[in-house]
Amino acid sequence: TQILPCLSTINHDPKNFSDPYKFDPERFLDANGKFVRNDHVVIFGLGKRKCVGDVLAKAEIFLFVAQIVLRFKLTPATPISKEIELGLAIRPAPFSINAMPR
């Protein structure tokens, strides 16, 4: 018998996150703006069935974002809404940015 965790339920548990359905990236920063690790975030799964590419994916995303931030000054083109659309996948509303070469 396979038992698979429901990641959506874990990632949106009010015991682990205040206002879990609000798109709020700042919840992962402390008062000084430093990243705060949260062991309740399970994006890549758990246990034996955990995504085998999670370390590679995180490294690639870091390198990609670092190159963008290094080469461009990013500013919002329009006001950014933190509202989310509920559906099959939970995602933030679309937004636009200006990317000016440094």
Overall mean pLDDT = 85
Net shape: globular
Low-confidence residue ranges: none
Q: Say how many strands there are.
A: 4
Q: Quaternary state, please?
A: single chain
Order of helices and strands: HHEEEE
Distance between the termini: 55 Å
Strand content: 5-15%
The neighbouring-strand order within the major sheet is 1-4
Largest sheet data: 2 strands, antiparallel
Name the helicity range.
10-25%
Q: Radius of gyration, Cα only, in angstroms?
A: 16 Å
Number of domains: 1
Number of helices: 2
Structural class, judged by helices and strands?
alpha+beta
Protein name: Cytochrome P450 2M1
Organism: Tigriopus japonicus (Copepod)
Family: Belongs to the cytochrome P450 family.
Cofactor: heme
Quick structural gist:
By secondary structure, the chain is α+β, with helices and mostly antiparallel strands. It contains two helices and four strands, in the order H-H-E-E-E-E.
What does this structure look like?
The chain has one domain (7-101). Helices cover 23% and strands 14% of the residues. It has helices at residues 7-11, 54-71, and strands at 72-76, 84-85, 91-92, 97-101. The strands form two sheets. It has a two-stranded antiparallel ribbon. A two-stranded antiparallel ribbon has the order 2-3. The protein starts with 6 loop residues before the first helix and ends with a strand.
